[in-house]
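Note to self: the last two entries modelled the partners one at a time, which told us nothing about the interface. This time every component goes in together.
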Amino acid sequence: MEVSTVGKVGEIYRVSGPLVVAEGLKARMYDVCLVEGLMGEVVGLAGDKVLIQVYEDTSGIRPGGKVENTGRPLSVQLGPGLIRSIYDGVQRPLPVMKEISGDFIGRGIEADGIDMKKKWEFKPTVKKGDKVNGGDIIGTVQETEVVEHKILVPPNVSGVITEIYEGSYTPQDTIAVLDNGTELKLYHEWPVRIPRPYKEKLPPEVPLLTGQRIFDTLFPIAKGGTAAIPGGFGTGKTVMQHQLAKWSDSNVIVYVGCGERGNEMTEVLEEFPELIDPRTGKPLMERAILVANTSNMPVAAREASVYTGITIAEYFRDMGYDVAVQADSTSRWAEAMREMSGRLEEMPGEEGYPAYLASRLAEFYERAGRVKTLAGDIGSVSVVGAVSPPGGDFSEPVTVNTLRIVKVFWALDSKLAARRHFPAINWLQSYSLYAETLADWFKDNVAPDWSELRTWMMTVLQEEANLMEIVMLVGKDALPDQQRVLLEVARYIREVYLSQYAYHPVDTYCSVQKMYDLMKAIKELEETFYKALEAGKTIDEIENVPGREDFARAKFEEDYKKYLDDAVQKIKANLLGGGE
Amino acid sequence: MKEYRTIRDVAGPLIFVEKTEPVAYGELVIITLPDGTTRRGQVLDSSKDIVVVQSFEGTRGIDKASAVRFTGDVVKLACSKDMLGRILSGSGEPIDGGPKIVPEERREIIGAAINPYARTYPREFIQTGISAIDGMNTLVRGQKLPIFSGSGLPHNDIALQIARQAKVRGTGEEFAVVFAAMGITYEEAHYFMKDFERTGALERAVVFLNLADDPAIERLITPRMALTAAEFLAYEYDYHILVILTDFTNYCEALREISAAREEVPGRRGYPGYMYTDLATNYERAGRIRGRKGTITQFPVLTMPADDITHPIPDLTGYITEGQIVLSRELHAKGIYPPINVLPSLSRLMKEGIGEGLTRDDHPQWNDQMYAAYAEGVDLRGLVAIVGEEALSERDRRFLKFADEFERRWLQQGKYEDRDIEYTLDLGWELLSMLPEAELVKIEKKFIEKYHPAYKKKAAQAEAAEEAA
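The predicted structure of the combined assembly is written out below.
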């Protein structure tokens, strides 16, 4: 082949689904290429051939066609305009795509990740003559009512400010100039596969409060922590992910719908603008960014979507914010890897997944963390990944390799789901390695006896499980009364405390104070029951004590405290006699 | 268009052709055998040296002298409103002896993905007249809800009953049915056709038939043909389409066959690693689009191999579809039709489609209560098997009885029995009234007072007394 044709432009040699092989092309790994106008990424070099994974459907592409190398890695545009966006896997805004190609997703669409025409009010926080380094904040833009967008110096740039302009600018306008001639704009680009730098990682000591009782009490996640929610279909993974996106106390939410249902993304799109954040009083959408690559959208873009999501999250972290990333579902991401690996004819590992599955998962979750940013602030990225194990079997490669990395395991249980106990998190199987480090926070910020109550609850649930084995054999009546009281207390814990209705306007979110009050109340019931037993009440009277329905319903009330106290008093009065 | 006689290898359904001009990926291929007959196929892999073609109609009789013609076009379906009332082959050719369909439009059968931003969330309740579905696994317009069946279970009857009875109340709008058979037997297909003809449903139906003895590979395009027809009718002519696709297990077998022929690295149980994506490109072609009137509701049927719900086919399907209707061999053996096991069944879109103004105000809580009570009853059956019914408390015995009556009276219904939602709910209330009122903890007092038979009776008596006075 003539040397002159070797360079930025090459020729298609082979097309096999999302894999295109080009020849006569000079390329580095992960360079972005345009295959007849379709975006792709170099995933392998084989002799004189270049292997490219294409993010769009390749029907109609034929050998001999043109391949252009842009020479740049796959990057995202980071600047004002990110919030409230909904993107495909490679940061193309879906509303823009709809304008261009209608209701169905067309091919070869080029679109900026952020609106380059929109003007933002820029307020500098540094002045002429200031020395700035990568990651430093040079000014702010009020992006939404909730999020103040801090304009960062790109991580690999530094110098002394020679000019800086206040006023209304588009992301592309120059807002500052450095002594070395570098022009700074409101946005910069960053390659998605490279983690953004920070000064140092900090230990995770602050909980990411989710408003979900079972999470915050029994299996808490820290800000900057990692969690996995594995569960078979119908166990409520997506509902849990939505709940976390809605109620977790982070400044910014990045929701990555990776290879999931189209209607679910629509639900998020329709619901988030209407839901009100309990902390800010503003719609949740004011702090959310969605990446939606549904199951029928091109598989290679699905592979990229989680990286797109986490890079955006890191960018907001670098402003000193707490960011939560919800990836639903990492299994689809792993499957996308498997599909590409198969096309590349790589030697497969377990169940056809590539041998590098574990390392890719580890790399991804390692991008989470609570850090000191380059600018010296503290920010965090917490990652919650849903896992969809085939057949609900937790011994499959994606679940196993995820659990080796993440610190919190929320095990969804199809048996609980079948009983319509939601959230269907199995309390015996799940764990959180943050529970101990976070205990101090709860002690200082909620109540000194928080940890004791938590331990008490876990013990009751564990003992219940042991007793239930006996009950299954001999029936409940054969148990001594003391143990039956324990079962009864466990029932309150399960049905009142752990069960939480995602679709109930009040119960959908629970403050830590309310959690504490509920725990305390159940503990009080336990004491009352044992006292009543001593005082000669029968177990039937305890199990059917009037007031128990009121107790169960108290959590649905806005001013639950009053109802809860009333119910406790009513139960006490009935069992121990009036006025105690 | 050049013809090539350069077939190098034929392996299973695949044909390897050498020395061609550049051929596009996905291109439609016509293969002419020496005896003049033609076969159609599609390019699976195209390189400068060799092109891999999968033949939809099998490779029997193909020799190295056969001519391969690349059409320069991808596989398309000739779409027209006149498709309604017609019976087409699995690859879209009329097989009912009628005239050729004059296309208004030729559409690519690989439909582009709906932009999630263009969708609207499905919310309109479809009344199927089947209690187990309407009451506890409610279907809404634009949903994809599969039937997970087993061999020998009456999934065809249920699919037909839904096709006959499905309606959105108060709109008078009827569904047009697109029916695609993939690898089902002649007998089964005949059963469907006879019912369509007898009820007059055929006039509002497009039928695609790929029977058990038709080439397996054709099955891979049959659902895509059917969904293309559905999209055309829904989005160009505002039809509400009910797509019945049976049986997806056969489709997946064909997918595995192609994968094996291509010597791909297999995923679970020999099925290709991309089966999830492939199934999704079919199932996701359901829904509603903002600003368009027509909708597509999908009812795929699949038989779980050995009744195993964890088998890759039902498993991957369940991860894509919005719920599932699971049939139970045990209920079927008890003689209960429809043998729908409501416990593992689920409709994910139900919560938005029921309640006040949609079905009835008590429906959501009623559903939770029915579900909980039946689940408890079924659990107790397990206990009875160990300790005997005598050991049960009075309360437990009531739940046990509830579960029996639930199956016998509420679940059980005729194949032509079209129950409206009020009947389904009221019948449920009758069963719930067998339980002590204090046990109905999932229902608010106001609904109990409004719908519980005891209160209704009281209210009726009070009214009568008032009138008498």
